[in-house]
Amino acid sequence: IAYTVFAPVLGLLGDRYNVRVLLTLFCAILGLGTFLMSYSSSIVQAILFFALAGIGSSACWAPVVALAQRWVSDKRRGTALAFMDIGSSFGIVGTSAAVPLSM
Which intervals hold domain Major facilitator superfamily (MFS) profile (predicted)? Predict the structure, then answer.
């Protein structure tokens, strides 16, 4: 829910402010929320920290796409966005595969 609420807000902020600063700030928020989830001692704390991580992760798509579009020429934009999408899929699959291997 937090991701869904904040993603459009981050898209608008990314248009107005420095995307690199927003990404740095919200990745730190994502990391903090994820870190704090590991120390939650109640379901309420876990939900709050998960929401904090969701707010942080909301900066991980729309501003990144905007940044990629600014960096890449019109001719290569589709390829760049495709590789960006592939990279995020590999990240999801890679972490899913790594968890059983680490046990």
Answer: 1-103
